Amino acid sequence: AASYTDSSDDEVSPREKQQTNSKGSSNFCVKNIKQAEFGRREIEIAEQDMSALISLRKRAQGEKPLAGAKIVGCTHITAQTAVLIETLCALGAQCRWSACNIYSTQNEVAAALAEAGVAVFAWKGESEDDFWWCIDRCVNVDGWQANMILDDGGDLTHWVYKKYPNIFKKIRGIVEESVTGVHRLYQLSKAGKLCVPAMNVNDSVTKQKFDNLYCCRESILDGLKRTTDVMFGGKQVVVCGYGEVGKGCCAALKALGAIVYVTEIDPICALQACMDGFRVVKLSEVIRQVDVVITCTGNKNVVTREHLDRMKNSCIVCNMGHSNTEIDVTSLRTPELTWERVRSQVDHVIWPDGKRVVLLAEGRLLNLSCSTVPTFVLSITATTQALALIELYNAPEGRYKQDVYLLPKKMDEYVASLHLPSFDAHLTELTDDQAKYLGLNKNGPFKPNYY
């Protein structure tokens, strides 16, 4: 749904095609380079709602803070991330890019980036083999060696660490934006194997409190509506996980009149769910009666085959977490079950007795696989990522050790302030006396580092 393909959309793999852009370069692999003009219009539409990122681009492109940076990136490739990639290029970086999800690439946007000279290797509907091939093509290049990584989910970092340890050692910094990827970074760090500084953007306030919460609050409904045309009023829904993503999903569903249950492992999040008016239950207690199951835990095997066997007919099952491990989809690929593709990204899994479960995006990320996400909120995340890259790339020797860091609060506040003009919002300034009373600098940071 997020990508349009023309009628001549053939079955030939992009890897088999010889394509060149108008400048004669073939240093990319996309579905169809001829869609570049259409993709450029998509990027221009996104730019209109990403004014803060564009203003950062204008302010910094004179001094080129990323001159000499060779960034290898692995994120969703959409019109919004294209604005980020082109901002990094405008600030002096050279970029090579692949997709962190096999379904979320907008083919026309990838074509526009390739036409503009970015080495992009991605298309919608890659196989597992294609996915790793694309990442490898970005990293393993003659005469070009990455010195920065921008990752979403940790697959690129993992690949470079495992396959190219020599390149990994020379990386100046890693910026990671998902719960899953950050978890993998902390694992590396704990094992003493992280030999480069990394910036955990996911837990920066401007990602966690905005993208995870507000983006999901709007895009959960979009993804479900586009794929199933479901009516939410009176439906019984269980949301697994009440972190920022779960909070956003629950708020949207409750507002449309759904009856929402929450599952949680964390007593603090569970108590928050209770105070927000949701019943906190175990999945096994409600699985027979619910109409929709949504996972957003960042964990694995949250919905098991046993749960799937007990669901009622036509229950909708989907995932809002980064990885496709939350729903045990592998357990459904058995001879006694029939899979029926009903629409793009919608499968009916049919049991021997005729019961159907509606599985969306094969258990992968619902909003980016089946719909689009709000541009404005992605501007906040993208600006945060750009500043994290600039910070790590320009940090003096020794400021960052081989560890995982949070973005300095001053930067979080700077990102937020860049987005306020869109709302014509006017900040109040502290008087000297008030600042002294609170023990703060008048210009911030206003939040402690642990916030």
TrEMBL record:
<feature type="domain" description="S-adenosyl-L-homocysteine hydrolase NAD binding">
    <location>
        <begin position="212"/>
        <end position="373"/>
    </location>
</feature>
<dbReference type="InterPro" id="IPR036291">
    <property type="entry name" value="NAD(P)-bd_dom_sf"/>
</dbReference>
<dbReference type="InterPro" id="IPR015878">
    <property type="entry name" value="Ado_hCys_hydrolase_NAD-bd"/>
</dbReference>
<protein>
    <recommendedName>
        <fullName>Adenosylhomocysteinase</fullName>
        <ecNumber>3.13.2.1</ecNumber>
    </recommendedName>
</protein>
<keyword id="KW-0378">Hydrolase</keyword>
<feature type="binding site">
    <location>
        <position position="367"/>
    </location>
    <ligand>
        <name>NAD(+)</name>
    </ligand>
</feature>
<feature type="binding site">
    <location>
        <position position="264"/>
    </location>
    <ligand>
        <name>NAD(+)</name>
    </ligand>
</feature>
<feature type="binding site">
    <location>
        <position position="207"/>
    </location>
    <ligand>
        <name>substrate</name>
    </ligand>
</feature>
<feature type="binding site">
    <location>
        <position position="78"/>
    </location>
    <ligand>
        <name>substrate</name>
    </ligand>
</feature>
<comment type="similarity">
    <text>Belongs to the adenosylhomocysteinase family.</text>
</comment>
<keyword id="KW-0520">NAD</keyword>
<dbReference type="GO" id="GO:0005829">
    <property type="term" value="C:cytosol"/>
</dbReference>
<dbReference type="InterPro" id="IPR020082">
    <property type="entry name" value="S-Ado-L-homoCys_hydrolase_CS"/>
</dbReference>
<feature type="binding site">
    <location>
        <position position="211"/>
    </location>
    <ligand>
        <name>substrate</name>
    </ligand>
</feature>
<feature type="binding site">
    <location>
        <position position="152"/>
    </location>
    <ligand>
        <name>substrate</name>
    </ligand>
</feature>
<feature type="binding site">
    <location>
        <begin position="243"/>
        <end position="248"/>
    </location>
    <ligand>
        <name>NAD(+)</name>
    </ligand>
</feature>
<feature type="binding site">
    <location>
        <position position="177"/>
    </location>
    <ligand>
        <name>substrate</name>
    </ligand>
</feature>
<feature type="region of interest" description="Disordered">
    <location>
        <begin position="1"/>
        <end position="26"/>
    </location>
</feature>
<dbReference type="Pfam" id="PF00670">
    <property type="entry name" value="AdoHcyase_NAD"/>
</dbReference>
<dbReference type="InterPro" id="IPR042172">
    <property type="entry name" value="Adenosylhomocyst_ase-like_sf"/>
</dbReference>
<dbReference type="GO" id="GO:0033353">
    <property type="term" value="P:S-adenosylmethionine cycle"/>
</dbReference>
<keyword id="KW-0554">One-carbon metabolism</keyword>
<dbReference type="Pfam" id="PF05221">
    <property type="entry name" value="AdoHcyase"/>
</dbReference>
<dbReference type="GO" id="GO:0006730">
    <property type="term" value="P:one-carbon metabolic process"/>
</dbReference>
<dbReference type="GO" id="GO:0004013">
    <property type="term" value="F:adenosylhomocysteinase activity"/>
</dbReference>
<dbReference type="InterPro" id="IPR000043">
    <property type="entry name" value="Adenosylhomocysteinase-like"/>
</dbReference>
<comment type="pathway">
    <text>Amino-acid biosynthesis; L-homocysteine biosynthesis; L-homocysteine from S-adenosyl-L-homocysteine: step 1/1.</text>
</comment>
